[in-house]
Amino acid sequence: MRRRVALRRSGPPLPLALLSLALLHAHGASAQPAGGLDGPLTLKRTPQLTETLPPAERSQLPSLITGDRLSGRQDLETVVEGHATLRRGEVAITADRLEYYQPDDRARARGNVRVNQAGNVYEGPELELKLETFEGFFNNVRYSFLATGGHGEAQRIDFVDSNVSVARTATYTTCRREDFPGWMPAWLLSAATLTTDTEENVGVATDARLSFMGISTPPLPSVSFPLSNERKSGLLPPTIGIDNTNGIEISQPYYWNIAPNRDATFTPTLMSKRGLNLGSEFRYLEKEYSGSIRLDLMGSDRLVGQRYNETRAAQLQQLANGEIQASALNFGAPPSSKRWGIWANHHQDFNAKALGLDSLSANININRVSDNDYWRDFTRTPTLAQRQLTNDASLNWSKGDWSGGIRALRYQTLQYSLSPIVPSYDRMPQITANYNKYDWHGFDVSLNLDYTRFRVNTILAGQPGFDINQQSQPDGDRALAIATISRPFITPSSFVIPKLQLNTASYNYYLPQSDVPRLTVNGTQYVNGVPYNPNSLYFFPTSSNRTVPTFSLDSGLIFERDANYFGRAFRQTLEPRAYYVYTPFRNQSMLPNYDSAANDFSFATIYTENAFSGNDRISDTNTLTLGVTSRLIDPDTGVEAARFGIAQRLRFSDQKVTLPGGTPVTDRASDLLLGAQINWTPKWSLDTVVQYNPDTHKSDRSAITARYNPGPYRNLSAAFRYQAPTTPLATDGNKSFDVGWQWPLNDLWGDKGKDLGPGKGQGGGRWYAVGRLNYSLQDKKLTDGVLGFEYDGCCWIGRVVLQRITTGTVTANTRIMFQLEFVGFSSIGSSPMQTLRTNIQRYQPLRQPTEGPSRFTNYD
């Protein structure tokens, strides 16, 4: 017969404990009202199911003992034989024989001993343990950890407390144990001692060897690894890569977990072709502010001197061949070989209520590098291959219907002689205030105020980035006000929205002498009282303003019907739309242009008032845009299965306002815009846009994108893009094909695998192909590409990825990344994960961090 008893440390004798427990239960039962419940029974949370028990509560918990035969001495000991079980809180011990000594709270177990401590399981022949402090030892033990699924064996485990244990002559792996003779895991960590700390979630192995497929590393003095997905300080796995620019690249990161809301990473990187780069990143997160700072420093980069010598040798060869004259030699002083980059961002929330505001926040964003070639030579930075780096600080506020901000923005433009770019204007500063009021007696009202001081660096003719239009008006101030009022009339089947807008701007800027009216006196020309000198670089201050009104009328109808296509029921809509805009002509040719550019022709811009972005050019417009859209909607879920649209803009008069150097628009009808989006099932989709020219009967631009995603880790995407050149002799056109994929190769021989859940893969022994290729049909070359394979070995994952990045019109950077990930332990090699996420649409990692399992998932 099995018996059960509850004991407390230094508690009453066994019979008295049983009697007291029975009386407590009887008392609890008699406390219920005799007449039944006055209200519904409500369930309450019990602290007995909490994941982690506080030490104070753990010491007060009862000890529950069951077994076939029970004997003992009062207040001294209890002996249980046959199916013996002792449980206190999150600790459960089973054995053939169990002895419990009450004075020192010590349990001794013999024969088929099993300990379950919060889901972590230990098994062996002999155990001695203090229950409250979890101090003791376990001989010849097998163990497994709940958080990682890792397991191993040890000659002995010493339990220091409920969190820390030290295993002697121990092994560890996350490979699933197979039940056949001679089984060996794919990888195995062997160590003289293996210390695990479940509170810090870290394991430390000394005198350790890591074996993979029978190949072992030399003894390592100390190796640390995580027991969960939480952060810990220490050396991270080294990364090794091969790059045609850097050569063999070895990085050894060190992670410092300063606090739960602060950390830092230091990453020295040795490049065989270039030297040593020191990288560091600091992150912080507080209730009212957050941010990060990254600093990379390379004291001496051999690539700089190599590039200088190659340029010098090429010019000397041209001189020897008679291709250039000696006067054309332009070596200059060798550039500095010191390279650096800094990237920082900070967000701050202030106490807005103290100032009578609803919100008040500040943002700082810094991106600075040492030289123009940094974007080509360091492609794995936060700004990647960007060549206009933003550096700005802003203060933003809101109160009721008002909002605004103060901003200072400066660009660092990285010029490249083979592909120069015109730098953007700095805004030093920009001050804005905005008012938006919706449904004010049926009207929507808005007022946008903006004052900006534009500045740009001087670039001499012949230097990269020189633009005559920009350099002729380098600096200026602009005050802008845009007032808008509209009256929407909206019903379930129609809408009519008349709108009036007034756009006014005042400029203070500088003009060269050649653009300022001249006065001739006695044969001498004067400009603002100064004799005219065509060779002078002096700019004269001037001012001007313009005010442009705009009227627009947006209207549309919505028809619906039930339809059936290909055996599916839909709610089909037909939505015609008419959009009329009238803006009178105001001559703006003498005004500077700081931020205006031609709008891209698309469904997002065809229903807008202005043909230009920005605020320096307001197009004179007398147009009517007509379009119609039809949608197929699933009546049960409301999901849009398909959308088809067509639109065209009709012009009643020429558009005379142009950008500097532009020509008036005289076409009475714009190109025809056609688009379709089809999401017939969640597995596949098609998105296409075509800009058709009725005059040439050809497409000036088209984009077709298709995606097939039948299940987890299966994704195919393809895109074709075409952009006609602006003129027959221009080279600004584009014609390219882009394809990306992630697919299990095992599907080819019928092995479909099984879905184990997000971030857990589809089982071991499976190959995956990953990649993306961008091919220019116009240049007949591969511009960018990623090609690789992944192998899921269940407890380990191997990845090999080759990447090619175009960093100029004639240059490209190629690197190979190899990574070996020991699941739940560590990884070595160069991680390609960021590359795969960036380049492959809907890429799914084979393993992702998930919430740790509850201790009750492995409850005895």
From TrEMBL:
Gene3D superfamilies in alphabetical order = Lipopolysaccharide (LPS) transport protein A like domain
Q: Where in the cell is it found?
A: Cell outer membrane
Where is it chiefly localized? membrane
Name the UniProt key words of this record, in alphabetical order.
Cell outer membrane, Membrane, Signal
InterPro entries per UniProt: LipoPS_assembly_LptD (IPR020889), LptD (IPR050218), LptD_C (IPR007543)
Task: Give the signal peptide as a residue range, or say none if absent.
Answer: 1-31
User: Which GO terms fall under biological process for this protein?
Assistant: Gram-negative-bacterium-type cell outer membrane assembly; lipopolysaccharide transport
Quick one: a GO cellular component term?
transporter complex
Q: Is Magnesium there in the keyword field?
A: no
**Taxonomic superkingdom:** Bacteria
Q: Which residues form the LptD C-terminal domain?
A: 338-749
- Please verify whether the record's keywords include Membrane: yes
**Function in brief:** Together with LptE, is involved in the assembly of lipopolysaccharide (LPS) at the surface of the outer membrane.
- What do we know about how this protein assembles, alone or with others? Component of the lipopolysaccharide transport and assembly complex. Interacts with LptE and LptA.
- Could you say which protein family the record assigns here? Belongs to the LptD family.
Protein's name according to its UniProt entry: LPS-assembly protein LptD
The upper taxonomy is: Bacteria, Pseudomonadati, Pseudomonadota, Betaproteobacteria, Burkholderiales
